[in-house]
Amino acid sequence: MKKKILISLFSLVAALSVLLAGCGSTSSLVTPTPYPTAERKSYTVARGDIVINVELFGQVQPRTLKTVYFQMDGHVGDVFVQVNDHVKKGDLLANLVELNDLLISATSTQDAIQRAEDNLKIAQLTLEKYKATGASPYDIQIQALNIDLAQLDYNEALVKYGIDPKSPDPFGQLQAQVDKARVYAPLDGIIISGVNPGRSVTDTTPAFAIGDGTQMEIVANVDASKADDEFKSMYEGMPVTVLPNDKPDLKWTGKITQLPSPYGTGDQNDKTVHITLDTAPATSDFKSGDTVTVDVQLANKIGILWLPPDAIRTVGGRTFVIINGDNGPKRVDVEIGLKTTDKIEIISGLTEGQVVVGP
Question: Are 206 and 267 in contact (CB under 8 A)?
Answer without folding.
Answer: yes
